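Standup notes
- DV: blocked on the single-chain target, sequence here:
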Amino acid sequence: FGFAARNSICILRITPLEPAFYGELVGHVDRVSGFTFCHYPGQAHLCASSSDDGTVKVWDTQTKAVVTEHKHHQNTISALHWSPLVKDLVISGDEKGIIVCHWYNRNDSQHFFPEPRTIFCLTCSPHQENLVAVGYKDGMIVVIDLGRKGEVLHRLRGHDDEIHSIAWCPVPKEERLYLRQDDARETEVTNGDLLPEVETKGCYLVSGSKDQTIRIWSSAKGKGVMTLKLPFLKRRGGGVDPAVKERIWLTVHWPRGHPTQITSSCFGGELLLWDLTRSGKQKWTLLGSSSEGQNHSRIVFNLCSLQTEENRELLLSISMDRDVKCWDLSSLNCCWTMSSLGGFVYSLAFSPVDVGCLAIGVGDSMIRVWNTLSINNAYDVKTFWQGIKSKVTALSWHPTKESCLAFGTEDGKVGIHDTYSSKPPQISSTYHKKTVYSLAWGPPVPPIFGGEEDRPLVSLYSCGGEGIIFQHNPWKLSGEAHDINKVIKDTNSIKYKLPAHTEMSWKPDGKILAIGNEDGSIEIFQAPSLKLLCTIQQHHKLINMLRWHHEHGTQPELSNLLASGSNNAVVYVHSLKIVLESPADTPVIITEPFRSLTGHTAKITSLAWSPHHDGRLVSACYDGTAQVWDVLKEEPLSNYRGHKGRLLSVQWSPVEPDSVWTGADDFCVHKWSVSKQEHSKPPRGKKSIELEKKRALQPKPKAKKKKTLIGKGKQETSEIANAEGFGGENVIPAENGTSEQEEEEEIPDQEIHDEISLQVFLPPPASRETLSLPAAVSEKPKPTPDLGNIPTKKQLPKEEMRKEKPDIIGKKRKARSVLPVSTSMDHRSKEELYQDCLTLATSLFSNKLPEDCTDGSEDPMHLGLFTDRISLYRMMEAEGKHHLENGHGELYHQLMLWKGDLKGALQLAAERGELTDQLLAVSPMAGYQVWLWTVEMFVKQLCYQEQYIKAASHLLSIHKVYEAVDLLKANNLYREAVVVAKARLLPEDPILKDLYISWAAVLEKDGHYTMAAKCYLGAASPYDAAKVLAKKGDLVSLKTAAELALIAGEKELSTSFSVRCAQELLSARNWVAAQEVLQQQNSLLGQRLVFCTSELLYKSLPEGSTMEWKSLSPPCFHSWAVRHKDPFLHTVAEVWQRTFGVNTIEQFKAAFHQLHGTEHPPATPNTSIRQLLFHISYDATLALLSSQVTAWDEAVRALLRAVTRASDAGHFTLMQEICYLLLPNGCSHLHDHVDITNVASTAAYKSLQAFVSYAQLYDLWWGCSEESQPSVHLNFSFTKQEIPELYHSPSAESSAAESAKKTEGELAATSGDIVEMKAGVSDRTAEKLEDCLSCTPSRPHSKRQLILNSCKVLVSEVHAVFQSVQNDIKQIQKKLADMIQEHQKSLMLTTTRDNAVENKPNMNSEMPAEESSPDRQNQGVQELAPLSLAMLTKTLSEANQKLGELPEFVKIFPFPDVLECCLILLHIGAQYPTELPVDLRQQALNILQKYSKGQKAYDVYRKFCT
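- DV (later): unblocked, structure below
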């Protein structure tokens, strides 16, 4: 079964139980108007489609490819059918009445033009290959014979309106199929019976029409034999809507297995089965009448049937409600319903109570609620459309109430649906002015609704495109909603303008609210007072999505992670643990993320945390892909590219850990598996690839001289006019009116993988009518001064200005006559002029006209020039009438002025819209009130003509300054409005500030940040001016914004911008410019010291350690000298004293307090070398400051962080370099300063000592390898079978000493065969090795013994226990996840396999629970019995209990791998047996025997050997 959906065709595999998506035929570029399968035997895999793009395509559904196509139609194709008797004949018809017969096998076509009418439908006869029935728009049906060159055999007249559908009887010959005949009746009888007919070779034909009748025709006789009239069915809830009759589409189908029955659609979505053998008037039966909700809710467009293998006939229907339904014609009940989507998928939301219930917000003004866990019906979907008249852009389920679903729409409406009820939704009485982008349920904030007993526990919050967040009372939506901005301003004493809000997210515990803003900032508030805790200034563009990490993870601190996405392509994750657990007195500004997830190439539209994993996030992006991230490792895991459009929404399945749901602008919702994706990273954008190619091929262009622009004095109205853009269906409302063209153009070409995705929802079925139109966008008239409803835009078409020929130089143009009629009459023939003289004389002296003029042939009005005033007025009236008829109203106005009727002239000119400056100039002659009225009418006329500046000038002439300013402002003439307001109003007038702020908002939206900053400064809002300047994010903007904020007294804001600017300069390795920026701020002494340490560290490290830090420009250093012989920290202290004058305790304390308390995120292998070195410099600076102020415990912790960062990032040699720089003589000098009574300080010192010894141990090991220089090179590799001592059973522990000797002997025997050790020894390491291991026999032994003695700290059993338990927990969690995944796979296989288990009963017993991987085979692990879920859970709880019994300091501070250190010690001891202390060797052996078991031991040995 297939149906058309926009530009493609969707193919389904039909069963009585449920449908299965088979594939999609993609190739048309416009709406598909027709689709048909080939019913010729053996060709069921072929089908054909027609489209508004003018093509008819033949498809092969097996390959989903086009077989052939043609473009013979010149007009829109309206009908298509495949001949059931000719295997390669496809017939199509268009709106002009042309029929094209195309035989695609021989590529031959014929054109027929039977009737000059619009074709609505056509169908080929299943019994005679040359007969085709054609239905037309005007109700005509013709039967043509293709064998006779399209000759019309019959014209069937009877319908009065469009023919919607035609079907042939499946049984040949016109037999008597009916029980009762009435010869006395007419041929056409309403709901009557067939007249007796003589058996012929013809065939019956049935047609359905918009005139609400079904007619059965005889193709042999060419006349109608029966008429059936649609009944009016009373639906539940009242009678039939009168408008329903107009919305009818009467489609008919003659089932193949029921030749005496016809199926048809009816009013409003019902389906009828007509039994032609039934006597009486009611021949119809309603389908789906056994239970409520089976029928379609809107009109049905198409019907077709098919036979199953069980010989059941199924009827399929598609409707305007976008549902595909399958009916059993034997029981007349609906077997299943499959919903489809008719718009962009803007929102997805899983219910937190009814797990698996997915709500889908769609751009077709409907909400779908899908029970994804339904067993009986995979597509158990409810559709809600009542009360929704716009695109559904936001959804949110109530946290505790099961069926309560809140929704927001594009037109600003907020409502709540009860999904268990069919009642209309509750709609909030408070509307947003623009699109609702976000909804959230959270605790109430002041002012609280109601009293203590009648107020809700949670409120509904909505965020709209105008930048306002409303708090709605869910118990009383009819009440007024509250704007939370007032609470924010009052609580935090904010006087500046708050940024426009674009997104919000409540922390799951309801205590913290995160709000994203249009300027890219994120604000964290504490409920219920909404106290501002911190501001995150990471993004520089509009925030689209905020999501808090869930609270049920294994690591509680992860609940403080906040993920954010914006119009930038980077996803940032911030850890707010310190801010939330110990909030500061004043709001903190955060400028560094916990993790940066880079890879997308366009804006981020949606985010979702996995509820099954810790720190796993999925992001949806405009680049057409969804990306799964491991946030803690900062790594991309899986990338889904199955959609054909931009992704708009994403949700992680609450039931299946490996499943993610995504919605896009391709009208589809996809469910896909994370582990089955081919790609792990997003595709690269086209623009970035092209830029790289251009940079590689083209030389750097020279800078061009700027040309001096002349004639720049014009008004800059192009920058500010038409600030708001309007879009149709393809515009995503997630941008709040901003344009992101460059990002939308970077969407890469999508690859379609058939086996990757399950396309769940499909677009609407195409029909011969437009099913849904884009929401019409109406532009509201702009506000204008209240002067008799002056319009702002011309509502009537402009009168075309008459084009006059240009004047020739030196030749004056003759003025048009004011009295043309009388002048022309004075140029008649002499006889007539003589007669005028006589007429005039008679009128003057005898008071009567001569006889020649009394017949009325001529009116002597032109003689009024010479007679009395009444005659003159009559002549002037005739002249004026002539002027009006010829379009010269201004001359008529002059005549009225001459006449003295100035008021009448002004009134007439105002009514006709012909007021001029001249009339306005003389209007004071009629009095002050007339002049005032004339000016107002002239202003209205100028507004119609869009001459707003001139209109404003005239308003000023009558002292209406406020109206003039409002007029200019309403039409985006802000510059002119400001000039008028400043020139005519008082400086403290609030309208001036409002003007500046409104203008700044428009400029900011258009990207004119500098001009917007000027406006904010003019409005006395330097805070907003600095923020808008920094919005661009480049160096110049940040530096200017910092200086501006400093001048205005906004020190905190200036400080944050200075730090951001310095960090950007640091990325370019320009330390000189960074220090210049920081030195402007007195409060940034600590940051200056950090940047100084960073520069000295960069100089001190060898080039190999900083190779990854790349920039376009070379490094820019100060002249500070670095002496490698002096201790690094001593050099840093000297530079601080010499350059910054920091040499007193007070200065050290001030800098220490500035830096203390700032926590940087831990390093990962994906952390950039720039960020890593900066964080190390920060810790080194803090350590040096701590030592100067005698805070030794903090100094130890800072040194430990500095050393371990490089190790966490995977840079072992860098860790060694940091150890030698910061602690060249070890850390023994710190021992006397550490507080021994403080357990945490002692543990930190021990960890630091361990890492220093760890670095020295590896130096010693590598030195031993170089000294030994084995002559025989062997490949060293072994499996767990070869080292069975490390995999002993518990019983072996009793003979520990014997096993220790055996293990020691084997390690000594194999140590000589090790060739490949860790490579990449740095220069400084080589120097240390030369010092430590000289050629003299005595000194190396003493040095080596000292190092080995200091390594005793590494052999720590408590840390070995902790690491072993931690590893066991990881392994158990991995097994649990694998077990759950395998269980879900088996469930899916069981449900989809049906009877496969019966055919293969022994398959499950023979199949292993888990296939062994190659690594597992190599390791030689043979599990005797699979572990059960209960056993794993018990083991996990025991491990967690054991972990809880360990001291806290072991869990807090990092420590080197104890097993790895033991192996290295034993290896060195095997080479130098006399130098390794016996007790240390025995301790290392005991730890290895005790804790090196299973996978952990294998990993350690593999690391050791490679």
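- Follow-up: The first helix runs from residue 485 to 492.
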